[in-house]
Amino acid sequence: MIAVLMGGNSAEREVSLNSGEAVYNALKNQGVDCFKFDWHGNNLDTLWVQNFDKAFIVLHGRGGEDGYIQQQLEQRNIKYTGSGATTSEQCMNKATTKNIWRQHNLPLSPSVLSKVGQKIPDIDFPLPWAVKPILEGSSVGISKVKTIEGLNKALELAWEYDEIALIEQWVEGSEYTVSILKGEALPVIQIKTNQGFYDYASKYLANDTQYLCPCGLSDDNEQLLKEIAMRAFTLMGAETWGRVDFILDKENLPYLLEINTVPGMTSHSLVPMAVKARGMSFDELVMEILND
């Protein structure tokens, strides 16, 4: 029996419910004995009394992607999909991820951290800046800061989600993503949006966001992205599946943005698009993740 864990109480709850529904239907289509569990953040007791062998985690954001649910399952010796608790916690934290990647000379834009209630550190890289909470996904709480005067407002928004905000140099360019499945980097996808950047609305609400696969890069540039993505994924200790996001500047130089250990599994989602380009169906993807 498989428990499909979905919902949660993060800012990405609605996306997780959609992802969970899609995964549940895929499992059902293939005759897998499973049930849906909508976690609200305080009802895990009702999960533990149910008899199941493994959890398929499709909880996005806090609680599901930060190691909490993984830790709860490990304490009960219940198997689950995806990366382990410690890895999940590190990958969810943008500051920790950047530190690990920086130590291994992976390509990153310069950044500083700003904690609520403390003096804003000196910023020695040029505007514009991206300001984002360090523990949110789906571009929640992100602002583009074009003037010094706009920084406080951006920090206040980020601090609504977390007490630490990441201020990094904004790289003007094109966004790309590399999905990873069982040790293989899948075809690269370019993301084109009319929103200015790939924000929450572009990801889940807009119908004019374009996903290009083939991505339009030269074979060499696409291969480079895949190699960096695999290295970034492996260095974090991530397992089974995930997604690594990039921005390429106007000279096609890549900069890592972040890693996702429980990416979206909706109709707008990128991992299903990448496996489709490789000739794999959504149902097959779900089984690959489940059986790893």
Automatic annotation (TrEMBL):
UniProt catalytic activity: 2 D-alanine + ATP = D-alanyl-D-alanine + ADP + phosphate + H(+)
Q: Where Mg(2+) 2 is bound, by residue?
A: E258, N260
Q: What species does this protein belong to? A: endosymbiont of Bathymodiolus septemdierum str. Myojin knoll
Q: Identify the metabolic or biological route this protein is part of.
A: Cell wall biogenesis; peptidoglycan biosynthesis
**What is the name listed in the Swiss-Prot or TrEMBL entry for this protein?**
D-alanine--D-alanine ligase
Q: How is the cofactor bound?
A: Binds 2 magnesium or manganese ions per subunit.
- HAMAP family in the cross-refs: Dala_Dala_lig
Sorted alphabetically, which NCBIfam families does this protein's record hold?
Answer: D_ala_D_alaTIGR, PRK01372.1
The entry's cellular-component GO terms read: cytosol
Primary site of residence: cytoplasm
Q: Where does Mg(2+) 1 bind?
A: D245, E258
* Annotated gene: ddl
